Amino acid sequence: MYPVHFCRECGHEYHPVRLVTDGSTRTFLARDIDDAAPIRPEDEDDAADTADASGEVFGFLTPDAADAGFSFSDTEEDYPENWLDFDARENPRLKPHYKPARAREVRVASTGQVGSGIRGWFVPGKFRFCLRCGFTHTSAARDRTRLASLSAEGRSSATTILVGTALRWMHGDDSGLEAFTRKLLGFTDNRQDAAGTSSPPPSRPASSPISPPTDRRPRLRQRPAR
Ligand SMILES: [Zn+2]
C-alpha cells in the first residue's frame, strides 16, 4: 500500500516512496511524506537529492496517467522555465543543478519492484513541480503542504479538486448534459476541515494557540446582543 497525495492544482496523484537498491533488484518502498533523507549541511532547499550512503533515493512516484492532460515525456520543454539554460541557438538545457532531480521513466510492478509492470515516473527529491500541469513550487513549504492528501488537513482541498474535476467533465464536449443541468453543489461536512483549508496548513509552531480564522467563527458571535 502506498500513500497517495494529489497536486493541489490539477489533482494528479503522487506516491511518496524511497527507491531501494539491493544487488541488482530495485524496489520502491512506501514512505511517509514527512520522511526525508538526512539533510547534509551543504544541501539547500533547492538542491537536488541524490542517493545517500545506503543507496536509498527518496522521491515521488507517479503513474503515467491515461488522461490526455498528461503529456510529460521528459523533454526539456516539460520542465519549469527556471530549471533551464538556453544556449546561443535558444535550445533549452536542464541546469546542472537540477539534473539529479530529472524525472526517470520506470516500469513498476504492484509489488514495487522495478523492471516490469505499469509505466510511471520517479521524481527524485522533494516535490518541486507537477509533471501534469507544470505548477511549480518555489517557496520553502514542506511537501505535505505542497500536495493534498485524503486525510487530515488536505481533505477539504481534495473535495475542491473532486468538485473541480466533476465541473470540468460536466462542461466538456462529451458529458451529454444540457447546459442548464450543469450544476453541482459541493461542501465539506466538518467545520474544522473548512477552517483548516481557509488558513494555511500548520507551519505555525506547535505551541502557538490555534484559533479559527475570523471568517469561520460561529455566526452567533458576529451578531451583537440586543
Ligand atoms: Zn498538477
Descriptive notes:
The chain is α+β, with helices and mostly antiparallel strands and 226 residues long. It has two domains: 5-149, no CATH class; 155-197, no CATH class. Helix content is 14%, strand content 21%. The chain is built from four helices and nine strands. The chain has helices at residues 143-146, 155-170, 191-198, 219-222, and strands at 5-7, 13-22, 25-30, 57-63, 84-86, 92-94, 104-108, 118-124, 147-149. The strands form two sheets. Strands 1, 2, 3, 4, 7, 8 and 9 form a seven-stranded antiparallel sheet that branches. A two-stranded antiparallel ribbon has the order 5-6. Zinc ion (ZN) is lined by residues 7, 9-10, 12, 130, 132-133, 135. Zinc ion binds at residues 7, 9-10, 12, 130, 132-133, 135.
Summary keywords:
226 residues; alpha+beta; 2 domains; 7-stranded antiparallel sheet; 4 helices; globular; binds zinc ion
Short description:
The chain is an alpha+beta fold and 226 residues long. 14% of the residues lie in helices and 21% in strands.
In total, the number of domains comes to 2
Averaged pLDDT: 79
Q: Structural class, from helix and strand content?
A: alpha+beta
Count of DSSP strands: 9
Share of residues in helices: 10-25%
